[in-house]
């Protein structure tokens, strides 16, 4: 009985599955029909054993000696990651970063559609970014209810991010992507992912230091630890 229970996919694996999907989309655009595990692993920046372990969550999908069908694996990953459904997102804080995100067309092609933009600055409210009008921040609950947004993206200053998050959650949003440099507190049942480019840069700086032998205390990270920071 226990064999039929679905395996829980760890969050770090989900993030890597999304990277494989992006790599496969690029290969498909280039007209490729198959890819070896070595090539896919290298393009995704992981080791082949890690790739095979990650893909084992999808069930059988590769053919020994042939590799993976680009279309087949892409379809399976899309299905598992829920990318077939369009996900409506609201974006709060339409400043420099928020405007750049709202104006980026690449999210829609991956199934993430901005459906509502909100800002508290009267100079920004009423302007259009990426073809959408910016609504006053007070309308957050109305916009979430009207659009059925399921993901809230926060690009406000850190001081107000928790309050914005609380309002998104109270309005029924269960997935938050936070760019503000603050750890948000959310009730059980709500998922928060934090994006922090400075952490990524710090990791790169450390790996660079380690490569040239000037890392001060930790001289080597275990291979699996290196894997988990990617
Ligand atoms: N995660 C990263 O790697 C990364 C990179 C750059 C910036 N940031 C963070 O992203 C956030 C935005 O940065 P920015 O440079 O775009 O700032 P910005 O000042 O240009 O934009 C912030 C916007 O939020 C709006 N705002 C303020 N309070 C609000 C509220 N209560 N409700 C709705 N809107 C509100 C402001 O009017 C402004 O338009 C900051 O927290 C910054 O630290 C993160």
TrEMBL record:
<dbReference type="GO" id="GO:0003700">
    <property type="term" value="F:DNA-binding transcription factor activity"/>
</dbReference>
<comment type="subunit">
    <text>Homodimer.</text>
</comment>
<keyword id="KW-0238">DNA-binding</keyword>
<keyword id="KW-0805">Transcription regulation</keyword>
<comment type="similarity">
    <text>Belongs to the transcriptional regulatory Rex family.</text>
</comment>
<dbReference type="GO" id="GO:0003677">
    <property type="term" value="F:DNA binding"/>
</dbReference>
<dbReference type="GO" id="GO:0005737">
    <property type="term" value="C:cytoplasm"/>
</dbReference>
<dbReference type="InterPro" id="IPR036291">
    <property type="entry name" value="NAD(P)-bd_dom_sf"/>
</dbReference>
<feature type="binding site">
    <location>
        <begin position="93"/>
        <end position="98"/>
    </location>
    <ligand>
        <name>NAD(+)</name>
    </ligand>
</feature>
<dbReference type="InterPro" id="IPR036388">
    <property type="entry name" value="WH-like_DNA-bd_sf"/>
</dbReference>
<dbReference type="Pfam" id="PF02629">
    <property type="entry name" value="CoA_binding"/>
</dbReference>
<dbReference type="InterPro" id="IPR009718">
    <property type="entry name" value="Rex_DNA-bd_C_dom"/>
</dbReference>
<keyword id="KW-0804">Transcription</keyword>
<protein>
    <recommendedName>
        <fullName>Redox-sensing transcriptional repressor Rex</fullName>
    </recommendedName>
</protein>
<keyword id="KW-0678">Repressor</keyword>
<dbReference type="InterPro" id="IPR036390">
    <property type="entry name" value="WH_DNA-bd_sf"/>
</dbReference>
<dbReference type="Pfam" id="PF06971">
    <property type="entry name" value="Put_DNA-bind_N"/>
</dbReference>
<keyword id="KW-0963">Cytoplasm</keyword>
<dbReference type="InterPro" id="IPR058236">
    <property type="entry name" value="Rex_actinobacterial-type"/>
</dbReference>
<dbReference type="GO" id="GO:0051775">
    <property type="term" value="P:response to redox state"/>
</dbReference>
<dbReference type="InterPro" id="IPR003781">
    <property type="entry name" value="CoA-bd"/>
</dbReference>
<feature type="DNA-binding region" description="H-T-H motif">
    <location>
        <begin position="19"/>
        <end position="58"/>
    </location>
</feature>
<dbReference type="InterPro" id="IPR022876">
    <property type="entry name" value="Tscrpt_rep_Rex"/>
</dbReference>
<comment type="function">
    <text>Modulates transcription in response to changes in cellular NADH/NAD(+) redox state.</text>
</comment>
<dbReference type="GO" id="GO:0045892">
    <property type="term" value="P:negative regulation of DNA-templated transcription"/>
</dbReference>
<feature type="domain" description="CoA-binding">
    <location>
        <begin position="83"/>
        <end position="183"/>
    </location>
</feature>
<keyword id="KW-0520">NAD</keyword>
């Amino acid at each position: 009985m226990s064999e039929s229970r679905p395996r829980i996919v760890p969050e770090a694996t989900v993030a890597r599955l999304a990277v494989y999907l992006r790599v496969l989309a690029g290969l498909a655009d280039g007209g490729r029909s198959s890819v070896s595990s070595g090539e896919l692993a290298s393009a995704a920046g992981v080791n082949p054993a890690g790739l095979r372990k990650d893909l084992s969550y999808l069930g059988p999908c590769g053919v020994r000696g042939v590799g993976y069908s680009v279309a087949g694996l892409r379809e399976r990953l899309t299905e598992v990651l829920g990318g077939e459904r369009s996900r409506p997102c609201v974006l709060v804080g339409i400043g420099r970063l928020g405007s750049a995100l709202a104006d980026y067309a690449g999210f829609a092609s991956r199934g993430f559609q901005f459906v509502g933009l909100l800002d508290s600055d009267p100079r920004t409210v009423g302007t259009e970014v990426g073809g959408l009008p910016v609504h006053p921040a007070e309308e957050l609950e109305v916009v979430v209810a009207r659009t059925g947004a399921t993901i809230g993206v926060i690009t406000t200053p850190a001081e107000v991010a928790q309050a914005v998050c609380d309002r998104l959650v109270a309005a029924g949003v269960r997935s938050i992507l936070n760019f503000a440099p603050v750890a948000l507190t959310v009730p059980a049942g709500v998922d928060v992912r934090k994006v922090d480019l400075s952490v990524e840069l710090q990791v790169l700086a450390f790996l660079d230091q380690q490569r040239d032998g000037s890392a001060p205390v930790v001289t080597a990270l275990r291979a699996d630890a290196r894997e988990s920071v990617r």
